[in-house]
Amino acid sequence: MENPVNITQKLKALSKHPLIELLKNNKGNPKTLILMEPLWGIPYNLIAPFATLYMYTQGITDVQIGLILSISMAVQVLFSFTGGILTDKLGRKFTTMMGDFFGWGVACLIWAASGNFWFFLTAVLFNSFEQINQTAWYCLLIEDADSRDLIGIYTWVNIGGLIAIFFAPISGLLINTFSVVPVVRVLYVVFAVNMLIKVIITFRYCEETRQGKIRMAETKNTSVFQMIYEYKDLIPKVLVNKEIVKVLIVCVILHIANLVNTSFFSLYVTQRLGIADRYLAFFPILNAAVMLIFMIGVQHRLESVKFRIPMWIGLVLYAACSVLLILTPIGSMPFIIVYVFVGAVAGGLVMPRKDALLQLNINPDERARINALIMSFTIAFASPFGYLAGWLSSIDRRLPFIFTFTIYTIAIIIVGKICDPEFAEE
Question: CA triplet 286, 60, 41: central angle to 5 degrees?
């Protein structure tokens, strides 16, 4: 049995971990939003491995699934485009609450009742409100934070979601007992209730940011149409910034790849590789465990190498994952485990740095509208690929992952040309 003194020393050492110190020192919105993340993350990760199967089991075809994804992304462009304007006029806090309520709360109730193509399409259209939330939430999260803390803050956001994944076996056990459709219906209702709780906590414990108050005052007497018209001056400023454009292209590629992987991995491993449905909940847990170990044990040790090199290595690993999945023999669980393991390390290297790199290259005075523009560009460019991936999957379930390998290769080339930003003095 381990000495109690050694246990105490380890706990003290853990309390001085850079991530723990960051959370203790951030008393405002970052801390509140990070601690709330499991309210969204737990039900999302209970459902995510089975969401596509939930549709497929009720007669939605591969092509229809892809069509729903593409239509929803086209609508998300509109919501993303107006998200920056609403965030400035209504404030970061209120807009976040509105996006959570309509984009997740109402959408999840519709998903819970869905049984045909039109219900599923309606649910994802309501879920498009979440794009308004994205702009406001990111501003609420980081605007009053030190720029040097951004990687740590985004790492905590990822950790909050990863911890939630460990609840995923619950859905696997329930589905093994009761089948996919009734279990997922109940989980969607739980998701809706959680989001209502999240809205209430945001209202009670979050504060409008300094920049949010400034933008609310500046736009008080400016019409929405005038603010839309002002985009004609803002868009060129974004597009002439070469570093923002490079990061934007990488964001688009990662968005498309995540869309394809999330939507078609479960169908690939169950319908082509012959893996039983009940194992789907195991893969996110392995992914979460590896990412948590990486983020807690390794992430803070990479601060000296900043952004470009870790992101480049991560994208190479992502590309290797696509090749590995394509070459996986039918029924070979070890290959899939290696795929998940390598993908988790890649995610730990790429995702927090991609988000932080984007924010560090944005003009903080126009953060909301530029973030909204970037999200609009990302979704607009990605929107046709949901249908494309569904069409490719209907021909051969390996083809979507050949496609992801191709776009990861493009991202590898672009990241090699990105410059590491300098941190601003606070």
Answer: 35
Using alpha carbons, list the distances in angstroms from residue 190 to 65, 111, 395, 410: 24, 12, 36, 40
- How far apart are alpha carbons 37 and 50 in whole angstroms? 21
Q: Are 92 and 368 in contact (CB under 8 A)?
A: yes
Single-letter amino acid, residue 271: Q
Residue 179 to residues 57, 182, 183, 278, 318, Cα–Cα distance (Å): 10, 7, 7, 10, 32
Helices (H) and strands (E) in the chain, counts: 21, 0
SS3 51: helix
Q: Which residue has the higher pLDDT, 304 or 358?
A: 358
Say which residue the tokens 């869309």 belong to: 259
pLDDT tens per residue across span 211-262: 889 888 888 888 878 887 877 777 787 778 787 888 888 888 988 898 888 7
Q: Which amino acid is at 401?
A: F
pLDDT value at 367 more than 70: yes
Closest by alpha carbon to 295, among 345, 254, 337, 342? 345
Average pLDDT over residues 95-120: 92
User: What global pTM score does this model have?
Assistant: 0.69
Helix, strand, coil fractions of the chain, as percent rounded to 5: 85, 0, 15
* pLDDT score for 134: 81
What is the rounded (10 degree) CA torsion for 68, 76, 37, 285?
30
Q: Taking a C-beta distance cutoff of 8 angstroms, is the pair 76, 255 a contact?
A: no
Confidence band, pLDDT 50/70/90 cuts, at residue 425: very low
Residues 6 or more apart in contact with residue 275 via CB below 8 angstroms: 269, 331, 333, 336
Per-residue pLDDT at 426 exceeds 50: no
Q: What is the pLDDT of residues 163-176, one digit of tens each?
A: 777 777 788 788 88
Q: Are 85 and 227 in contact (CB under 8 A)?
A: yes
Between CA 28 and CA 52 the distance in angstroms is: 37
Distance from first CA to last CA of the chain, Å, rounded? 48
Give the burial class of 332: count Cβ atoms within 10 A of its Cβ; 0-12 exposed, 13-18 middle, 19 or more buried: middle
pLDDT for residue 303: 67
